[in-house]
Amino acid sequence: xxxxxxxxxxxxxxxxxxxxxxxxxxxxxxxxxxxxxxxxxxxxxxxxxxxxxxxxxxxxxxxxxxxxxxxxxxxxxxxxxxxxxxxxxxxxxxxxxxxxxxxxxxxxxxxxxxxxxxxxxxxxxxxxxxxxxxxxxxxxxxxxxxxxxxxxxxxxxxx
Length: 159
Fold this sequence. Notes:
mainly beta; 11 strands; 4-stranded antiparallel sheet; elongated; CATH 2.40.50.100
């Protein structure tokens, strides 16, 4: 299934009285849900009124998936961490291009206004800036993966 077919399915779900579409093939599974409810408990600097996103999930069989390298985790107090969330649906990138280093890594200090990642949406590359100052504790999303509106991207220990 190619990208155009997936986009057509998303458009079909969004414009019709269909709440969910699921396609299972031998090499992948695709689930599209409209008005999915997600509850994320995290500190948010300013709530935004946005329509609920569609949830698009794809999975591939375990034989073809690769395990992501795990980074050593810091163990700060979880109750004081601030979450940087995705302001839109798109594809998450940690750097401007594959040849350049990541905007931020675990342990890096960030200030409000510093670019932490890029989210590509409809062929537009949107720089996502930190709204808080502190230290990056954890990167919650793998590079070049799809993200949803309000999905947590980074955990930051405030300075």
